[in-house]
């Protein structure tokens, strides 16, 4: 299990602490087209998570997806739980 995810599960933190890469001259950029629904979702997440940019939301999303994929490859499942009871299982493709 990835160390960040393991610590989050053992401490029952609301969200794992995700490292944010430092900004540097060697960072790549790309353009992506999104519909109005995703545009609104990015703005809502930016506000809710206290991020300063959509790029920060995107980096966080990719980091969380990477953690979930690593866990899936180790035979683990991703689930949403409330008071120790699994409410929903999230199935990743692959």
Helix content bin: 40-55%
H/E order of the elements?
Answer: HHHEE
Summed up, the helix count is 3
State the assembly state of the protein chains.
Answer: single chain
- Major β-sheet profile: 2 strands, antiparallel
Query: How far do the termini sit from each other?
Result: 18 Å
Mean pLDDT: 84
Low-confidence stretches: none
Quantity of strands, as a count: 2
Large-scale geometry = globular
Structural class: alpha+beta
Please report which band the strand proportion falls in: under 5%, 5-15%, 15-25%, 25-35%, 35-45% or over 45%. Answer: 5-15%
Count of the domains:
1
* Strand arrangement in the largest pleated sheet: 1-2
In short:
The protein has 94 residues and is of the alpha+beta class.
Describe the structure.
- This protein has 94 residues and is of the alpha+beta class.
- It has one domain.
- It contains three helices and two strands.
- It has helices at residues 3-11, 36-49, 54-73, and strands at 78-82, 85-90.
- It has a two-stranded antiparallel sheet.
- It is globular.
- The mean pLDDT is 84.
Can you tag this structure with a few keywords?
single chain; 94 residues; two-stranded antiparallel sheet; globular
Task: Give the SSE layout.
Blueprint: H1 3-11, H2 36-49, H3 54-73, E1 78-82, E2 85-90
Antiparallel strand pairs: 1-2
